[in-house]
Amino acid sequence: MSKRSLTPEVMALVAERFKVLAEPARLQILDALRQKERTVSEIVEKTGLGQANVSKHLQVLYAQGFVARRREGLFAYYELADEQVFQLCEIMCVRLEAQARSRRRVLAS
Q1: Which residue has the higher pLDDT, 105 or 34?
Q2: Which residues partner with 80 through β-bridges?
Q3: What is the pLDDT of residues 60-75, one digit of tens each?
Q4: DSSP symbols for 1-44
Q5: Which of 49, 57, 63, 69 is the most core-located residue (most Cβ within 10 A)?
Q6: Distance CA 93, CA 85 (A)
Q7: What domains, with CATH codes, occur in the chain?
Q8: Residue 56 scores a pLDDT above 80
Q9: Do the beta carbons of residue 55 and residue 39 sit within 8 Å?
Q10: ∠ CA(92), CA(94), CA(97), 5° rounding?
């Protein structure tokens, strides 16, 4: 693990990236893009979110570099810009599972 010093500027940038991921709808969109690139309509269909909502979140994800976009005719196709975002999700899932096991042990005693 990196022993990099976190300056206030770096901390602000990291916090901004985590803030983007703190919205469940954005995680749903990223998950929908995990298998392949999709149009807004395809993302709406896959996630069940409204089109305006998906478009708004895609703008944020695009601005922060989580997704890439390409235009083809009338359509914009979105894809993951960096699949490493799912490493963060995996780390959190492992921690949540460990906490759940610990809580179950406490409740069982």
Answers
A1: 34
A2: 67
A3: 999 999 999 999 999 9
A4: -------HHHHHHHHHHHHHHT-HHHHHHHHHTSSS-EEHHHHH
A5: 57
A6: 13
A7: 8-81 (1.10.10.10)
A8: yes
A9: no
A10: 110
Confidence of residue 58 (pLDDT cuts 50, 70, 90): very high
Helix (H) or strand (E) holding 64: none
What angle separates helix 24-32 from helix 40-47, to the nearest 10 degrees?
Answer: 110
Interatomic CA distance for residues 48 and 29, integer angstroms:
10
pLDDT of residue 105: 83
pTM over 0.90: no
Average pLDDT over residues 80-103: 88
How many CB atoms within 10 Å of residue 7? 9
Q: Are 43 and 62 in contact (CB under 8 A)?
A: no
Q: Are 54 and 100 spatial neighbours (Cβ–Cβ below 8 Å)?
A: no
Question: In this structure, which amino acid lies at residue 3?
Answer: K
Instruction: Give the closest residue to 51 by CA, choosing from 73, 81, 25, 79.
Output: 25
pLDDT of residue 1: 57
